[in-house]
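Below is a typical protein record.
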Amino acid sequence: MKAKGYTRKEDVETVYANHEDEISELLLKLVIVHLREPLPQRFVVDEDEYAITAARKPWVYGKRIFILSWGEERILPCQDKWRFTFELHNANGR
């Protein structure tokens, strides 16, 4: 998660910490939706205190990985590389 448009790291960390579970759930849902029906390459999820910009592009390196695992569980690499940017609204005068 990358924050932009805000100079006080403490403020970004506080808002993120207050919404961490909500943000994690949102990102998981976005990936699940994307697997069913591809999402646009770039879009913004706008909430009351913050916005998350999602951007994806083809992940060439991921296609070359033959075996990826989490403990004993095998995981298929994604075809896309995702970047999520976290931005506080009041950073832009909102």
Remarks:
- The longest strand covers residues 50-58.
